Recover the amino acids of this structure.
């Protein structure tokens, strides 16, 4: 609207210097209008609403981070307990840069945590043992009267 007025005025001015100044003003107005359309006006209410929404999202993310951090610590504790059940370093000897073992802490290289062993390892050994005959070499034992003619085991 202001541009129409200035354009109309431009037609009436004869002085070339004044015309140039007015022409520059018209260009400035056009540029201003172009920038305004690129950045639409925002109301105070919309700005407040946007900030509230951002704060809600941040609050939700913060709660997620706290929950994940708690879960991470639970997993790290469990991981350390299982490593102790195997008599291994927490890195299981897989990390040559480990500050505790320099990669030498594979299972069986540290004292066992008996409680952890009984919780996590022993049940597996029991389960695997169910399918193994009680004593596969029983028939070769010397004290077995049925097999007195069998040769004794090499190591006795
Ligand atoms: Zn280690």
């Amino acid at each position: 609207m202001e541009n129409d007025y200035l354009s109309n005025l431009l037609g009436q001015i004869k002085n070339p210097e004044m015309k140039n100044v007015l022409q520059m003003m018209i260009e400035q107005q056009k540029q201003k209008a172009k920038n305004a359309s690129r950045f639409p006006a925002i109301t105070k209410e919309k700005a407040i609403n946007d900030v509230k929404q951002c704060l809600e999202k941040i609050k939700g993310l913060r709660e997620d981070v706290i929950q994940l951090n708690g879960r991470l610590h639970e997993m790290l504790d469990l991981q350390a307990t299982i490593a102790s059940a195997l008599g291994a370093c927490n890195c299981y000897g897989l990390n040559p840069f480990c500050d505790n073992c320099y990669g030498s802490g594979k299972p069986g290289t540290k004292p066992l945590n008996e409680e952890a062993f009984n919780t996590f390892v022993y049940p597996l050994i029991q389960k695997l043992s169910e399918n193994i005959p009680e004593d596969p070499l029983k028939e070769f034992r010397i004290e077995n009267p049925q097999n007195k003619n069998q040769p004794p085991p090499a190591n006795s």
Q: What stands out?
A: The mean pLDDT is 86. The chain has five helices and no strands. Residues 30 and 36 are 10 Å apart (CA to CA).
